[in-house]
Amino acid sequence: MVKLFLILLGSFWMSCGNSPHAAKKAISLEEKKEESLRTSNDTILLDDSKNEGATVSEETKAVATTAAPVAIAGERSKPSEKEVVKPDHSKWTSLLAKYVNAKGDVDYKSFQNDAGSLDRYLYQLAENSPEKDWSKNEKLAYYINLYNAATVKLILDNYPTTSIMDIKNPWGRNWIKTGDGVLSLGNIEHKILRKMNEPRIHFAINCASFSCPKLLNKAFTADQMQKQLHEVTLEFINDATRNSISKEKMQLSKIFKWYKKDFTKNGSLADYIKPYTEVEINGNADIDFLKYDWNLNEAK
User: Fold this and answer.
1) Model-level pTM?
2) Higher confidence at residue 20 or residue 192?
3) Which of 74, 83, 119, 253 has the highest CB neighbour count under 10 A?
4) Integer Cα distance of 252 and 242 in angstroms
5) By the 8 A CB rule, do 93 and 219 touch?
6) Is the model's pLDDT at 281 over the cut of 50?
């Protein structure tokens, strides 16, 4: 009887593995996995922010690999002497206006019909990457549009899918050709854009998910860059589906957690957010981070 009692007691304790505490631990591990995937290239030299004028040739060569880039429709042989032309982002604007609604949701199913046009835009970017004499705003426009266009292409190449997280290594795979190198989405975000000392880029680039800042339905351009960055930051921070801000408590997007050091170089998170909200945030306000919705930002 004693032996039987011990066996039953052991079974009871084994069943406790399904307790709320165990479930909470499992959720915590899942969140850590999510964070690792999203910020896998977070170990860049962020203190190198003064190097905002790094040229493309230097940047892309630094992250170039021997991996062959994905073939782009309409690709033609390079001329013997390449003439560098600043990209015409109006082609990207036309595609965005056609397939992205005001909320930033994308009609990926219909976008497939224009996959060739998207490929040609990406090829134009690949053939005309930034030079040393390009302004910071021109480089920002180039890399923000490149990131967003490449993300849409990644989804189209794997469509139908319910989440970018279901795609193998979505941010780490090198396939985006630009200049003399081949980049990953992570390279563009962490090794180029984040080194330009402009934290508002986090509200301009889109990761094809509902909790991401919305995909703007027009291209970013050099002449409108500062205005556009202000507008997307203002809209994201005040979007109640992504942030909830009150005087004593802020429930923020995990973007503010993942890239906290980008936003707090000159103060706290509250200090960064205050200029974009009419709420008088208490300096000691509690901060929580909301669950991130990785479902595909597909128009219904």
Assistant:
1) 0.80
2) 192
3) 253
4) 7
5) yes
6) yes
pLDDT at 2 over 90: no
Report whether 99 contacts 106 (CB < 8 A).
Answer: yes
SS3 of the chain: CHHHHHHHHHHHHHHHHHCHHHHHHHHHHHHHHHHHHHCCCCCCCHHHCCCCCCCHHHHHHHHCCCCCCCCCCCCCCCCCCCCCCCCCCHHHHHHHHHHECCCCCECHHHHHHHHHHHHHHHHHHHHCCCCCCCCHHHHHHHHHHHHHHHHHHHHHHCCCCCEHHHCCCCCCCCCEEECCEEECHHHHHHHHHHHHCCHHHHHCCCCCECCCCCCCCCCCCHHHHHHHHHHHHHHHHCCCCCCEECCCEEEECCHHHHCHHHHCCCCCHHHHHHHHCCCCCCCCCEEEECCCCCEECECC
Helix axes 115-127, 136-157, angle to 10 degrees: 140
Over residues 228-252, the mean pLDDT reads 98
What is the length of the chain? 300
Place of tokens 């202000």: 230
In angstroms, rounded to a whole number, what is the distance separating the alpha carbons of residues 136 and 55?
10
For the four alpha carbons of 146, 152, 157 and 161, in that order, the dihedral sign comes to: positive
Average the pLDDT over 14-42 and give the result: 52
Neighbours of 83 (CB within 10 A): 7
By the 8 A CB rule, do 103 and 213 touch?
no
Q: Is the pLDDT of residue 57 over 50?
A: no
CA 186, CA 170: separation in Å to the nearest integer? 9
Over residues 150-186, the pLDDT tens digits come to: 999 999 999 999 999 999 999 999 999 999 899 999 9
Judge whether 169 and 299 are in contact, CB under 8 Å. no
